[in-house]
Amino acid sequence: MAYQAVEEIQVRCEKENIPFWKAVQLEDCEENGITEEESWQQMTLMWTRMKESVDAYDPSEKSRSGLVGKEGGLMDEYLQNEKPLCGDFVSKVIANALKMGCNNACMKRIVAAPTAGACGVMPAVLVTYCREFLIEEDRMIEAMYVAAGIGQVIASRASLAGASGGCQAEIGSASGMAAAAICGARGGSKEQMGHACAIALKNLMGLVCDPVAGLVEVPCVKRNVGGAVNALAAADMTLAGIISQIPVDQVIDAMGEVGMKMDVSLRETSLGGVAVSPRGIEIAEKLGM
Amino acid sequence: MGSIFDILGPVMVGPSSSHTAGAARIGYTARQLFGEPVKKAEVYLHGSFAATGKGHGTDRAIIAGLLGMKPDDLRIPAAFEEAKKAGMEFTIANRELKNAHPNTARVVMENAGGRKMVLQAYSIGGGRIRVSILDGIEVDFSGESNTLIVRNMDRPGCITEVSAALSKEKINVATMQVFRHKRGGGAVMVVETDERIPISVTEELRKKEDILEVISLNLEGRNG
């Protein structure tokens, strides 16, 4: 049985004296009858595809609606010519999150992590970190396992689908996964990884899913930036010694409950939020949606 | 199902796992079940597929799948042009399908000789699908396992014949479902197996008197 709680992962780490990522990998191998090598290979492929996807961005492409496409390029230019408020590293994270969101909208190849709409958060955090801090690839693949383990728990206790839990289930979950992963990659303990995830999830709790014209474009592309930057802040807070007063599994339960209470108009139906703002409706009508 | 690669993955062409990757998977599964190139295809989109399919590339993804492309194929955005190159004619229309899941597509495939197959399937998110109707009979399978589909007359002994043919080749049955129109009429067996289903099994079963048609779907390894 896959993990139902982050605490279960931490308990197994303790019992077998293994790192967080290993506990995730072993459980999945046992569950699906594959070897650790096969699992590692598959995860390496996911990591490779993520990197390829970041690099495949082309600022001259536009989505079929024409609403998004150039944002990643604009951020790159700004980064080269100006002094961004967020500094070099975070600005690159922002650029990569935008690139991935645009890639997805432009029908390029991405890794759903955990969903296509939220595909920019993990690579923005992990690929950028790996490249800017010159980290060994193996450490990043371990971080991918951490993220997957967290995602699995969120899937079992709450939801990863915008249609059931709103955008907190997509961008929120991606942010929680990335926060735990980067925290671990920076040397955080298994407890700190849990705190980082909890803080990231709390900060995005209640986030609604309100795509304009039903497309994974507005506001989805930019929300990937929100998820990525939030993950970095949550990881840094945790590494500074700040803890989440609410345990991570209880935060996930709360998030599941918030998702269930969320009105259906705010769960990927395009009947609420910015989707029904005057401009949102105008865009939808123009596109014939 | 609980693989971590359902959380990190699938690798897919955007923008939506349900409306793009799932749609491509529907087309791909249909093509695999048809077993040969599709010469002419009619695609009908229902519910959310009809409402937002265009913006999500649902139409292109299904056509790509019918051409044999998987959900991560970079040619999906150019599927209409690829169909032209491959000489496949197609039409796409919105249609209200009775009692269907919101993300449903119906595909009518025809080969050069006029043989037809009708498949209806729906996308359940994360790039996964369920096939719900095959040639007029209600079924329920994912297309993620090796699958044997047997159309037979609803008579005693058919299930034994199928399981005997499989066990002779040491093929382990994972799930088995039996559907029928009415007592003594047409029936369908859907058997999901752990191992690939060799041609010898399908050929042996085709010779049986009460078995009308045998279709097998074999996986080519994990997607990614």
Automatic annotation (TrEMBL), chain A:
Belongs to the iron-sulfur dependent L-serine dehydratase family. The keyword Lyase applies. Residues 16-275 form the Serine dehydratase-like alpha subunit domain. One of its GO terms (biological process) is gluconeogenesis. Its EC number is 4.3.1.17. It catalyses: L-serine = pyruvate + NH4(+). Pfam families: SDH_alpha (PF03313). Pathway: Carbohydrate biosynthesis; gluconeogenesis. Keywords: 4Fe-4S, Gluconeogenesis, Iron, Iron-sulfur, Lyase, Metal-binding. InterPro entries: Fe-S_L-Ser, Ser_deHydtase-like_asu, Ser_deHydtase_asu. The lineage of its organism: Bacteria, Bacillati, Bacillota, Clostridia, Lachnospirales. It comes from the Bacteria. This is L-serine dehydratase. The keyword Metal-binding applies.
Automatic annotation (TrEMBL), chain B:
GO terms for molecular function: 4 iron, 4 sulfur cluster binding; L-serine ammonia-lyase activity; metal ion binding. The keyword Iron-sulfur applies. Its cofactor is [4Fe-4S] cluster. It comes from Dorea formicigenerans. This is L-serine deaminase. Pathway: Carbohydrate biosynthesis; gluconeogenesis. One of its GO terms (biological process) is gluconeogenesis. It catalyses: L-serine = pyruvate + NH4(+). Belongs to the iron-sulfur dependent L-serine dehydratase family. Residues 147-222 form the ACT domain. SUPFAM superfamilies: ACT-like, Serine metabolism enzymes domain. Keywords: 4Fe-4S, Gluconeogenesis, Iron, Iron-sulfur, Lyase, Metal-binding. It comes from the Bacteria. The gene is sdaAB.
